[in-house]
Amino acid sequence: MAAQINPSILSADFARLADEAKAVQGADWLHVDVMDNHFVPNLTLGVPVVESLARATDTPLDCHLMIEAPDRWAPQYVEAGAGSVTFHVEAAAAPVRLAREIRAKGARASMALKPATPIEPYEDLLPELDMLLIMTVEPGFGGQAFLDIMLPKIRRTRELISKHGLELWLQVDGGVSASTIERCADAGADVFVAGSAVYGANDPAEAVRALRTQAEAATAKASWACDH
């Protein structure tokens, strides 16, 4: 049960993205937040930047689409070079069809849930996914405080994954830092998006290593991991 650390370039210097990608050598994925100023109240980047970033780094790209109409746009991010594409279930018209299309194009299919969206109605969709993202802040802005009230939801999601015997990654995004990552790992997360905790550090690559060490230590003691 290896923990994965995905630094979020939302906290990086957008004028130096290629250098910022290199600064987190050893990261498992590079988390790319795509916002359209409609689904969330912020505007970031799109397909052309993802294409450029894919050429500038060997670290695979984990694109988190906080956008309307992901059914239309998500496949373009696979074509742009993303290795994993996450769509929000609240915005998707046909999540199963979209997940299958993302997979068919060669990327990992992931579905995200906002804090107020329960996991239980989507239990039957889990086999269609490679990863599930539980937002631990309201999507739209970096640097927010971690919502502890999401921990029970992470636990319930891990229980559903175990119940169905799925090899499904469980990602958390929002306020993940040295002070919160162990709680997330104990609850059942195994993929951690960290923005300011990595890019705000003096040595981003060392921050990635330290966070992974913390997460793996917490996972080793977690009841959900011991059951495997």
TrEMBL record:
A divalent metal cation binds at H31, D33, H64, D173. Pfam families: Ribul_P_3_epim (PF00834). Pathway: Carbohydrate degradation. Its EC number is 5.1.3.1. The keyword Isomerase applies. Keywords: Carbohydrate metabolism, Isomerase, Metal-binding. Signal peptide: none annotated. PROSITE patterns: RIBUL_P_3_EPIMER_1, RIBUL_P_3_EPIMER_2. SUPFAM superfamilies: Ribulose-phoshate binding barrel (SSF51366). The keyword Cell inner membrane does not apply. Its cofactor is Zn(2+); Mn(2+); a divalent metal cation; Co(2+). Belongs to the ribulose-phosphate 3-epimerase family. HAMAP family: RPE (MF_02227). NCBIfam families: PRK05581.1-4 (NF004076), rpe (TIGR01163). This is Ribulose-phosphate 3-epimerase. It comes from Streptomyces venetus. The gene is rpe.
